[in-house]
Amino acid sequence: MKGNRILMLQENLKEFKRQEKPTRDKSNFSEGASFREIEEEIGRISNRIVDEDVFIVEILDFFFNRNISENQISDELREIAAECLFYAIKEINTNLIPFPPDEKPSVSWLTSEIVQNGYHELRKKNAFLGFKSQVGLKFKDDFETALLNSKISAAPKTMAQSMSSAKTALVVFMENTGALPFQWENSVGKLVQEGLEKIIDYVSEEFVKWLNKFKEAKGKKYQEVIILEDGKATYENLKVTLIDLSQKGYIIDVFTLAHGNASSFSGYQGISISDRDLQNIRNSYGSPLPLRVVYMMNCVGSGLNDDWLYVGAKAVAGSIRNNYIPEPMMSKFWQNWLRGDTFESAVKTAYNDSVKLITHTISNIKVIWPIPGVVIKAALEPHINRLLVDSEPKIEGNASLRIDSVSLVSGKSLSLTGRYSKAKYDTGEHVLAGLVSAFPVTPTYNIPIKGVDFTYAELIAMGDFYEDYDKMAKASASELVKLKALIDKSKRYYEGKLKGSPVGANPEDSDWQQATSGRYLKLAEDNFAHFAPSNSTYIASFSSAKPNHKSEWEKYHGQAISIMRKGMDSSAINDALVVNGFGDHFLTDAFAAGHLFNKDEISNYFKMLVLNSSGKINKQGEEMFGKIASKSFKGKLKDEFSKHETVDRLGGVWRPNINSADRFTKLLIGIMEQEPDIMGKTMVVKLIHDALNNYSGGISVTNNMGNKWQLRGDAKLDEKNLEAMRKAVVQSINNLSDALNDSSPASMFFKKVWDYTPQPTAASVTIIKNLIRNYTNPARQEIVDGAVQLLQKNYQSLLDELIKRNILKKA
Asked: Is the pLDDT of residue 69 over 80?
């Protein structure tokens, strides 16, 4: 097909022959142009311009550096090529290419002779080079998605063939069309807000465009696409839609674009949809809904991760704090998801590409907006890294799912209860250990982090809320404020308790969970670094490679000493104290009776005793779980589990109810085989911890300083234990100033502190060995009785997790 200019001239020629008066192209002919002039012009252009799609390939290749073929060109790609060139000529302000009518670029305008000629002239002059990357960045998402769509439409396999085994639906809940968080300029300034809004507006697709792309997915990747926007964006509509699709047998993906916080997101007119509202969707349906992935753009969306998993989602992602880049992140995720990336890759790549795009645009903003760009860049640069870090999504569940995945397997770890592995001193007890005086620290000496003042004692508590020091250092001021308030509440509670009368209520797990955007219980479950180093005296032939409280403390204490030795100003001192305070959390963990063993060793040892080399239950393990089930399957546990059946059909025919001790046995064995760490690192560790924590009179210990006392555990702190802990903390702080004048290796300073830590006496070593034997050996009655007590007490947590995992459902 020749260029549009030839077609127009040929029509003029036909008109001339009919009327002997051609319709003239005013851009190329003067009044009174003859038949011969038109005929000559046709011949001249026929030799100079190329086919429309050849020229379009040339345009796309130039701006996107992608070698695509003519047979891949679709109407969508043609329109993108036109938009790219129009955008470019506006930027370079040339008169070689006329603007399209009404400044609306069309394919006919793009492929006209004057545009083709003008483009080639400008290319010769290198006129586009300064704007090529700018154009490519702006239209990259449009181009990639259009290219993907062209491949989909050209594929020989029809939708009916590709989706014959399952029906899929997309539900998009849209309240704020990708807007930035409400009133966030209060924390960074209005100029920063306006600057980032300009940047995001520049790099993002128009809202209507990617809204249409959701709709266009119907018939290609989804059999049903439902968009709940404006007045339809209500909780009731969301609930009805999800339940209706579930009843019709659809596998559902959910995208939310709304304002929100850690426990809710907004619907129409700002009406809140809470975590409890989400949970009620599943409760109304009676079992987990067949949700595949949930991708959230609402602020602190990760706070709702667990709730969506409870509803039935197999993979979820939401921002760790405020989400400042809902666009371009949403459109980039959509592009990645459409092309078949795993959920994890689609989410992470969308975030990383968005960060790169925004930072690149800021660095080149003077080219984009020469005058206001200087002001915007100056305003944004001090803040942009923190805003982008806050926007990072947290992924949970089976992140390997793809858009064509029809097997809904959850990747969430099964846990009987969030407190099973919480074998540690409680928050307020850690704080009390740090209320010391050791220059320059006093009980009231404040150290600022992100503008939030913390005492050294409060810093010691932070090890339970962050995976490492770096993550604490990157935390938002708003999160730090919430944590400080809860830490102070816990401190006051334990101050009163130590005197015989607790003050107020100690914060619940749910309070810490909300303050940390949902990560607290997961950190508690994986807290290997809060337990003792490996000890072959307790378990022979096992040595854990995971960190322990001694190695973690030494790591941070060594860093703090290095900071002090590099500089002696107030900034260096405070920097060293923050690192050291975070590390002293692990030092004080060493003073809890429930930490006198290595958690990883216990878990692996127990698995070795009850599983064979293929990971299947052995005879001893089978007998143990039979005894546990027989004794625990009664009362409320029996009543509740009997109301449920397995999701999978036995032999593909029927779903057995969990209405007998025998079936409960099979269920427990299945958990052990599929999630062995649940029984090892949670249940068994919990049993040993509680036995040490509640040992009559405490565990006898001594230290290298010659002190002897009875060690106790969490929620049981007494004056004797507190005195021992504070001596170690004082030495840890003193080491920082001592290291300035003493060049001894760090190991010498480590010993000065560790000499204060408790070591079990010979009698206590025997006690600990016996407790480990009793609660890991499947033939022992102690592990059976202990497990029965835990199940009877925490059966609802186990049942909820099994429903969430889509293992059980209501009968």
From this structure: no
